[in-house]
């Protein structure tokens, strides 16, 4: 249904407003929606009156469309002009109608003052309802505002807690990183200390240890490192001046720190800057030994300051280095004594017509393995010549002393005569009663100028190797006696071999043929091959040269951790006196 009215005056506008309000109420529109509709229409009509002219208000009700429960009430305002098109769009507003609403649109606008007064009161009622709704909305807004405020306070508190938790978490992460860094640094120091200690103690040469120590410390823990060893000054070597802190460390046995600022290092005394190094921080650590410090190691800082944990590690490394140097010096002292004693006891080989002798003695170059091996050659009263090769178990000074006693006893027994087997039997009884816990091996060969045979006997010793005039080599592997000194009674047997002119007999110790990874048998076979490869002319006229040519291929793969003795006995060569001990191949070989 549709109805149109002309609006030209304020009264027309007021009556149109009243008609719209009543129509909306008749159709059951809620007061709030009705008020919105009437307020919008009033505002539009007021603008129309201000503009002037004639205006047309159309109220139209429409049936509900698909999806709607009720129809709609629409108000359209157009300016009415003579030449205006009816299709010209105007202002419009609408409101939904509830389901089942009804009511006719009045044909005429209501008139009379009573109607206007009644409409004004009705408008006040609608306004009152709107105000009530507005008050409810304000209360609701206030409630929500308070809730929002409480929520904001909670959010702020939560943010504060989260910030505190984040701060604590960051602190924990920082502490964990620091702990990990510290643990890694500690592990690195322990690894370095273990590796450096193993490197220092691997050598028994104190000069090599002194050379390795600065290499280990520079540049990771020191910019430079100098070692002051007190024994070097006692030998008369000219020394550079030492910082006062190093002298204090030598005197007190405590580490000293010299710089223009206090170090605050644990267990370290502070000193003013050194006059020798005024711009560098020095750390002077004594090298302790069993009774007194051996020296001082002076370090310059690789950074502005030393780390306290690094200093503790450096002091411990210096302690271990001092012990390693002390052990090396004691070892070198014992080795030198043993080598000197053994070389003093090695004999000059006698010159015998028709028999050439050549001997070689090489001390061990690794470990304290000097003193057990010896060779000897001497004449008996009946004109025979006795050649001896022996090896005392054990090493060092004690073995060298026992070797000298056995050598002296054997010579004493040989003066009274006797075969090699008899001499070894007597020597066995002598060693068993003299040193029950010490053993030895030996082989004795007896030559006689009027005979073309050699008589030999062995006690636990590697077998002799015999080369014939034709160059063929045999290992004399007849069953030997047991080791000398074992708690067992034994009579050691003699063996006789034919030695025509041009024959060579090689006596040796196990250091020449034994290798840890291979055993002794391959070495004996290699010695036989090497002896067979020698030229006959060298054996006849240059036995010394032949001895060297045998040693060189035999020892190229040896680590020389045991003494080496070789004694060549050649029949038919010119009378040659073997070199004295001073010429025998020794440490220079």
Would you kindly provide a written description of the structure presented here, covering whatever features stand out?
Residues 573-589 have low confidence and may be disordered. The protein has helices at residues 10-26, 31-51, 113-201, 206-217, 230-234, 244-252, 308-345, 397-415, 420-434, 510-513, 521-532, 536-541, 543-555; strands at 2-7, 54-62, 72-80, 91-96, 224-229, 256-258, 269-271, 282-287, 295-300, 355-362, 373-379, 385-392, 440-447, 453-459, 465-467, 473-475, 495-498, 504-508, 564-571. The protein is an alpha+beta fold and 589 residues long. The N and C termini lie far apart (135 Å). The protein is rod-shaped, with a radius of gyration of 60 Å.
Provide a short characterization of the protein structure.
With 589 residues, the chain is α+β, with helices and mostly antiparallel strands.
Question: What structural keywords apply?
Answer:
rod-shaped; 19 strands; 589 residues; single chain; disordered C terminus
Helix tally equals 13
Largest sheet: 5 strands, mixed
In the predicted model, the low-confidence regions spanning at least 5 consecutive residues are 573-589
Gap from first CA to last CA: 135 Å
What is the SS-derived class? alpha+beta
Helix/strand layout:
Elements: E1 2-7, H1 10-26, H2 31-51, E2 54-62, E3 72-80, E4 91-96, H3 113-201, H4 206-217, E5 224-229, H5 230-234, H6 244-252, E6 256-258, E7 269-271, E8 282-287, E9 295-300, H7 308-345, E10 355-362, E11 373-379, E12 385-392, H8 397-415, H9 420-434, E13 440-447, E14 453-459, E15 465-467, E16 473-475, E17 495-498, E18 504-508, H10 510-513, H11 521-532, H12 536-541, H13 543-555, E19 564-571
Parallel strand pairs: 6-7
Antiparallel strand pairs: 1-2, 2-3, 3-4, 5-9, 6-8, 8-9, 10-19, 11-12, 12-13, 13-14, 14-17, 15-16, 15-18, 18-19
């Amino acid at each position: 249904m549709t109805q149109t009215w002309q609006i030209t005056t304020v009264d027309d506008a007021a009556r149109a407003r009243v008609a719209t309000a009543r129509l909306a109420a008749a159709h059951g529109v809620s007061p709030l929606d009705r008020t919105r509709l009437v307020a919008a229409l009033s505002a539009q009509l007021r603008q129309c009156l201000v503009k002037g002219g004639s205006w047309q208000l159309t109220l139209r009700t429409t049936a509900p469309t698909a999806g709607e429960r009720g129809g709609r009430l629409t108000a359209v305002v157009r300016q009415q002009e003579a030449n205006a098109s009816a299709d010209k769009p105007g202002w419009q507003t609408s409101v939904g109608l509830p389901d089942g609403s009804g009511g006719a649109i009045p044909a005429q606008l209501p008139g009379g003052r009573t109607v206007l007064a009644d409409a004004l009161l009705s408008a006040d009622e609608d306004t009152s309802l709107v105000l009530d709704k507005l008050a409810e909305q304000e209360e609701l807004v206030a409630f929500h505002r308070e809730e929002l405020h409480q929520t904001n306070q909670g959010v702020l508190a939560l943010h504060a807690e989260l910030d505190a938790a984040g701060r604590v978490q960051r602190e924990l992460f920082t502490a964990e990183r620091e702990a990990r860094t510290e643990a890694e640094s500690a592990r690195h120091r322990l690894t370095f200390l273990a590796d450096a200690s193993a490197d220092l103690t691997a050598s028994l040469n104190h000069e090599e240890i002194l050379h390795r120590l600065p290499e280990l410390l520079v540049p990771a823990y020191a910019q430079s490192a100098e070692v002051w060893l007190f024994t070097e000054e006692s030998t008369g070597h000219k020394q550079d001046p030492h910082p006062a802190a190093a002298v204090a460390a030598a005197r007190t046995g405590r580490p000293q720190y010299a710089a223009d600022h206090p170090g605050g290092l644990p267990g370290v005394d502070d000193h003013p800057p050194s006059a020798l190094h005024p711009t560098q921080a020095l750390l002077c650590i004594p090298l302790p030994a069993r009774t007194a410090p051996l020296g001082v190691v002076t370090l310059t800082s690789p950074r502005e300051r030393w780390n306290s944990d690094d200093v503790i590690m450096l002091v411990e490394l210096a302690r271990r280095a001092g012990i390693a140097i002390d052990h090396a010096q004691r070892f070198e002292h014992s080795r030198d004594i043993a080598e000197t004693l053994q070389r003093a006891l090695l004999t000059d080989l006698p010159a015998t017509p028709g028999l050439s002798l050549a001997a070689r003695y090489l001390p061990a170059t690794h470990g304290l393995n000097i003193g057990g091996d010896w060779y000897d050659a001497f004449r008996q009263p009946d004109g025979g010549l006795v050649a001896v090769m022996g090896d005392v178990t054990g090493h060092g000074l004690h073995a060298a002393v026992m070797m000298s006693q056995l050598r002296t006893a054997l010579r004493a027994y040989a003066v009274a005569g006797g075969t090699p087997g008899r001499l070894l039997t007597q020597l066995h009884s002598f060693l068993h009663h003299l040193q029950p816990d010490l053993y030895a091996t030996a082989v004795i060969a007896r030559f006689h100028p009027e005979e073309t045979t050699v008589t030999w006997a062995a006690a636990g010793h590697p077998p002799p190797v015999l080369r014939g005039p034709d160059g063929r080599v045999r290992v004399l592997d007849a069953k030997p006696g047991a080791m000398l000194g074992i708690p067992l009674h034994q009579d050691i047997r003699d063996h006789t071999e034919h030695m025509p002119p041009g024959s060579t007999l090689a006596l040796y110790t196990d250091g020449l043929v034994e290798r840890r990874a291979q055993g002794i048998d391959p070495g004996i076979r290699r010695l036989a091959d090497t002896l067979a490869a020698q030229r006959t002319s060298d054996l006849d006229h240059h036995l010394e040269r032949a001895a060297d040519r045998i040693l060189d291929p035999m020892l190229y793969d040896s680590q020389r951790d045991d003494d080496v003795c070789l004694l060549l006995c050649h029949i038919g060569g010119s009378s040659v006196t073997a070199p004295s001990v001073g010429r025998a191949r020794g440490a220079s070989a």
